[in-house]
């Protein structure tokens, strides 16, 4: 029989949920040996249709073959940042249709190829890609599948707007109505896909340095020598080339203190106005991760008043921290009494509501320029 005080330690604080990384890139690319390349090394480093985890983009680029999209894509990404990348190498087909089929891939339920292989990346290499692209391979058919894959991964896809001129790019945009997609026109540098690859790398850098609540727009990118089409831009005139593309909406590239992407919007249709901005979509998916991480320990625990209060406090503490960090404007986690009947609770199915306001980009500020004689009102007094 023990006589005295027994002291135990426990951990039940309202520690903020760890933010999941949204900066991991999922890259689909082709690669084959050029002059002086070792085919065996390429196959060993990047087996076909197999997710490969890249932690050093420079080393990976050195192992990629000179031919195909993999090497230039890795170099363009590496110009912007050094992110975690999941590479899936696919075989270039004899025709564009064959290449499209290889990029899109398929699954029989046990094996995955092409884009589908990104879905198995988390279980195979421990990383879930959230920034998705296939630079230089993103035809309309491929981009359509990119969107589907991004949605399954709670990620976001970047692809080119195909068109020889602005009118064609705007028309091409009409093929899509997905909130998980941003289209970019024109291209940069010398190969088709360079701009998209740089978008992937810059997106990862912004996530790392600022956060997923900042859009891709108006951030200088590195390694750009030129753009493939002239784009007229004037910050004070919306009726320029850049303005027309943004209205489509298509993100474009401007040159002002360096080259920058210019545009905040997804291809979400009018039926999804809350997800018009890239930042709103990515904030929503980031919050879903936080909700899952915070609630996971509560799953299968007894439904008691104390347990629900504890969950509410932890979730709202996480929300307050995100507001303090400037990642969202506001948020609150509720237990809605009207939606939680006694039979529903007895069945183990409580219902909660998480409402939030994402940070909107200052896309179109208005300044009223007023001419006045007010500042002459004390003119004589200033001469004394």
Task: Write a brief structural summary.
This protein has 384 residues and is an alpha/beta fold.
General description of the model:
The chain has 384 residues and is an alpha/beta fold. It contains 13 helices and eleven strands. It has helices at residues 39-45, 57-63, 70-80, 96-104, 121-125, 140-152, 166-173, 194-209, 241-247, 278-295, 305-324, 342-346, 379-382, and strands at 25-32, 52-54, 67-68, 85-90, 131-133, 156-160, 181-184, 252-255, 259-262, 328-335, 352-358. The strands form three sheets. Strands 1, 2, 3, 4, 5, 6 and 7 form a seven-stranded mixed sheet that branches. It has a two-stranded antiparallel sheet with strand order 8-9. The radius of gyration is 25 Å and the shape is globular.
Report the sheet with the most strands, covering strand number, pairing sense and barrel closure.
7 strands, mixed
Q: How large is the radius of gyration?
A: 25 Å
Which structural class should the secondary elements be placed in? alpha/beta
- Overall strand count: 11
Shape: globular
Kindly estimate the percentage of residues that lie in beta strands according to DSSP. 5-15%
Percent helix range: 25-40%
Number of domains: 2
| SSE topology string | EHEHEHEHHEHEHEHHEEHHEHEH
Terminus-to-terminus distance: 94 Å
Number of distinct helices: 13
Mean pLDDT: 94
């Amino acid at each position: 029989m023990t006589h005295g005080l027994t002291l135990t330690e426990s951990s039940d604080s309202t520690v903020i949920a760890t933010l999941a990384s949204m900066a991991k890139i999922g890259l689909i690319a082709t690669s084959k040996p050029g002059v002086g390349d070792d085919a065996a090394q390429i196959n060993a480093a990047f087996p076909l249709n197999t997710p490969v985890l890249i932690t050093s983009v420079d080393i990976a680029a050195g192992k990629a073959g000179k031919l195909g999209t993999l090497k230039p894509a890795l170099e363009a990404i590496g110009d912007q940042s050094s992110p975690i990348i999941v590479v899936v190498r696919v075989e270039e087909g004899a025709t564009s249709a064959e290449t499209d089929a290889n990029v899109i891939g398929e699954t029989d339920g046990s094996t995955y190829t092409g884009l589908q292989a990104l879905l198995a990346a988390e279980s195979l290499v421990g990383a879930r890609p959230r920034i998705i692209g296939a630079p230089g391979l993103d035809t309309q058919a491929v981009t359509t599948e990119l969107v589907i894959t991004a949605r399954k991964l709670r990620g976001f896809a970047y692809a080119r707007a195909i068109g020889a001129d602005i009118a064609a790019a705007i028309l091409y945009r009409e093929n899509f109505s997905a909130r998980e997609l941003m289209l970019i026109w024109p291209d940069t540098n010398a190969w088709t896909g360079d701009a998209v690859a740089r978008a992937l790398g810059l997106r990862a850098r912004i996530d790392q340095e600022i956060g997923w609540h900042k859009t891709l727009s108006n951030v200088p990118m590195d390694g750009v020598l030129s753009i493939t089409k002239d784009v007229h831009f004037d910050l004070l005139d919306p009726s320029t080339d850049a303005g027309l593309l943004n209205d489509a909406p298509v993100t474009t590239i401007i040159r002002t203190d360096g080259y920058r992407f210019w545009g905040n919007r997804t291809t979400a249709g009018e039926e999804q106005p809350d997800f018009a901005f890239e930042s709103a979509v990515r904030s929503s998916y980031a919050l879903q991760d936080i909700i899952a991480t915070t609630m996971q320990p509560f799953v299968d625990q007894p439904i008691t008043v104390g347990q629900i209060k504890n969950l509410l406090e932890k979730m709202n503490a996480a929300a307050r921290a995100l507001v303090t960090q400037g990642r969202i404007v506001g948020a609150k986690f509720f237990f809605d009494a009207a939606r939680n009947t006694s039979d529903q609770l007895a069945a183990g199915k409580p219902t909660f509501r998480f409402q939030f306001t994402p940070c909107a980009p200052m896309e179109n500020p208005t300044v009223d320029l007023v001419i006045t004689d007010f500042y002459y009102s004390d003119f004589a007094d200033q001469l004394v």
